[in-house]
Amino acid sequence: MSAGTADVSRPRAAHGHVTQVRVLVSEWVKLRTVRSTFFTLVAAAIAMTGLGPLFSEITADRWPDLTAAERAAHEPVALSLVGYYLAQLAVCVLGVLVITGEYSTGMIRATLSAVPRRLPVLWAKAAVYGAVVFSLMAASSVTAFLISQNLLEPTGIATSLGEAGVTRVVLGNALYLTVLGLLSVGVGALVRNTAGGTTIIFGVLLVVPEIVKILPANWADTIGKYLPNTAGRSVAVLDPGPSAPAPWTGFAVLCLYAAVALGAAALTLKQRDA
């Protein structure tokens, strides 16, 4: 009888064993079943797929009335991806909420009780969120680009994915938004507060660049090009400019910011109480 009992108990113990794959599945279920997640991601997708074509249509409609200088200022790839500006705000807010939402409701205690090693939870949240954001933003960026170029066809400035650097820019836009989202997850895990996390992220994206601009020119040029959004956007523009980092160098700088935030979050998650 005791041997039979032992035989039955082993599969149950194995079935209940915590693995990274099971934590990933759990975090995926959490992400897709929260209503605010759905609406925030929809808002990001609408911003990406809507604003570029809208501005492209307006540009095409006004094209006959533009001067040569005004026409030269329009870059068709950048015009099609102009929705990134609002999309990044939605992605950042949700990145913070992915983890602070559980702290605000107290659910994080149950999560960490189920996964006592803790770090698999952080890695799973980051991996699931990153995969969702990249998939959605890549599809939205390609869609916005194709629609916009079709609308710009009468102007003669329309381009295609086959042109040099264009595919890198379109997919780079999705990469930029994804890593920005991961940076937000790290910040959210560090501060454990939704208002505090979003304030920090918005400050870094919107306030710090403006402060840097009022510094002496040589300081502003040196510091400004290594800010997260400035460096990260290098991979999502055709010509970053002589003072900006090279596309993949700038993207690596943004990845470093995200890695530092997630690494610091991992340390505090292990050391602090839930």
Topology:
Blueprint: H1 2-15, H2 20-33, H3 35-62, H4 68-72, H5 76-80, H6 84-105, H7 107-114, H8 119-152, H9 166-191, H10 194-213, H11 217-224, H12 228-232, H13 247-271
Helix pairs in contact: 2-8, 3-6, 3-8, 6-8, 6-9, 6-10, 8-9, 9-10, 9-13
Summarize model confidence as the mean pLDDT: 90
Strand fraction equals under 5%
Number of strands: 0
* Number of self-contained structural domains: 1
- The secondary-structure class comes to mainly alpha
Biggest sheet record: none
Morphology: globular
* Gap from first CA to last CA: 42 Å
| H/E element order | HHHHHHHHHHHHH
Helix content, binned percent: over 70%
Rg (C-alpha, Å): 22 Å
Number of H- or I-type helical stretches: 13
Description:
This protein has 274 residues and is mainly alpha-helical. Helices cover 78% and strands 0% of the residues. It is built from 13 helices and no strands. Helix 6 packs antiparallel against helix 8, helix 6 packs parallel to helix 9 and helix 8 runs antiparallel to helix 9. It has one domain. The two termini are 42 Å apart.
Key phrases:
274 residues; mainly alpha; 13 helices; 0% strand; disordered N terminus
Short description:
The chain contains 13 helices and no strands.
